[in-house]
Structures are given as C-alpha cells and as structure tokens.
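2 proteins. here.
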Amino acid sequence: MAMRNRRVWGLFILGIAITIGIVTASLWGEPQELVQAQSVPMEQENQMRAFDTSQLDRILREEVPAVARQGNQWQLVYQNRPILVFADPESNRMRMLSPIEAEDLVADQIVKMMVANFHTALDARYAFARDGSVVSLYLHPLNSLQTQDLLSALAQVAELANTFGTTYSSSDMSFGTGERERANPVPSGGGVI
C-alpha cells in the first residue's frame, strides 16, 4: 500500500513538473531563444573587456586639456571643478570624485544630499570621505566602463558638486520628481519621498 501511494505521489509531482514546463515554454519560448536574445555579440564583448587604465588615460586627456597622472590616479579640472580619478585594475574598480567645500553642514543640508541621491543626483552621489569631507562621487567597474559612461561621469560629478547648496542635482534630469520637488528636494513635514 505504501509503495502504491509513493507511485501516485510520484506521478502527481511528475505531472505538475510537466505542466509547469509546458506553461513556461509557452510563455517564454524555447530556452535556446532566450540564450540567443540575451547573448552579446563577440565584438561588443571584447570591447567591454578591453577597457583599462590606458583607455581611461587616453579619454581623460582627450576631454580635458591638463591632466596630471601618477600611477593609476589622475588629477584634472573639469567645468571649473577639481576632479580626482582613481583606478584599481586588480579590484576592477574606478572611482571619480570632486571635493565640496561644506565645512559647517547642518541637518537640513545632509537630508537634501540624501534625497538628491535618490532623485536628482542620477549616477553620481553625494558622499562623505573617510576624513568627513563631502564629495561628489561616481563609482563603476573598470573593465565594463565605456567611453559614454566616463564622459557622463565627468559631467555629473562636476555638476553635482557645483549645485551643492542650491538644486543638488547632477543634470537637468530628475528621476521621479516634479519641478516643485526638484527645486526643493526636501519634503515639508517629513513626508514620504
């Protein structure tokens, strides 16, 4: 009797698995189609893997007239902002930042920075460095960095630093807010953001 119950349950579970497989296949197509749709052409994949510190250096020098490099660190001025770029090929990371003069921060400014990080800072962010100083920051994996990412990062880091204390934004774009909220990113009364 116990053996018969096991067979019944086994057939029941097998039936459910087959049904799920049929439904999944009809909804998603054959697995091969999914793999083909998600695959990246070899040429693009090789370009993505090829990004390294020499490309980073070349693009920075093409974009900015005066770039100082020491190892995997660059100093430059972009849109009247000092910018520092750090690359760590072993960890596959690139960090770009611009210091912001904000010595006597008040709670309202910190809240505006954090709200801006959600709505108007886009890919750049306000952050505190280890020494407590405020910076405009952009982080990205080095090997998948593309030229457009780097150029966008330069513009956003500079703009976010330049708008500290006013609009707290990295560009004219805003994610999920209207013009009223963009002009004053801190909700009155501490409401939902």
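next one coming up
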Amino acid sequence: MRILFDQGTPVPLRRFLGEHQIRTAFELDWGHLSNGQLLDQAEAEGFEVLITTDQNLKYQQNLGNRQISILVLSTTSWPRIQKVTADILAGINSLKPGDYLEIQIP
C-alpha cells in the first residue's frame, strides 16, 4: 500500500510499516500545500492512505468523495506512538478506499 505521511507524523513510524511504501510530504516537497491540495495531489499520485496528526481535517475538508483513506493519530509524540505501532498497522490494514479512522493514543 502507498502511504503518505503528512507534516507532524513522526518519520520513525515508517520502520514499523515495512510492508508498505512510505513517503513524506516533506520528501516530496509538498509541505507548502494546503490540506485540500495535499489530498488532491496524493490521490493524483496514487497514494492510498494519508497518515496525519491533524485532528481538524475532517472539519476542514469534504472527505465524502475521496478515494484516499485517512488515518489520524491523536498525538505527534513519538514515544507515545511507538507504544501502539501494532494498533496503527492493524488500522492501516483495515482501511478501505475513502475510509477515515482516528486512533486515540494514550
């Protein structure tokens, strides 16, 4: 699965998602794009999942017609995220096109 990490998604997470192809918005020089532009560009480039920490995305964008799935992490804290990488991977593997999933991280 092709996954895009939005700004704020800790890059070390990619080591725990080894079977998937991971790119970051920063690597692609997409850091300047607005959320809507980022979603459009990601879909155009064939990304299947966007992982973000932007919990307001669902309020800022109309996600109803999207093919890209969105997984939202409730924190940017890598030490906290690292403890639930198995849950994140399971969430990714459960996604279908256009899904939206929030993972609450204690």
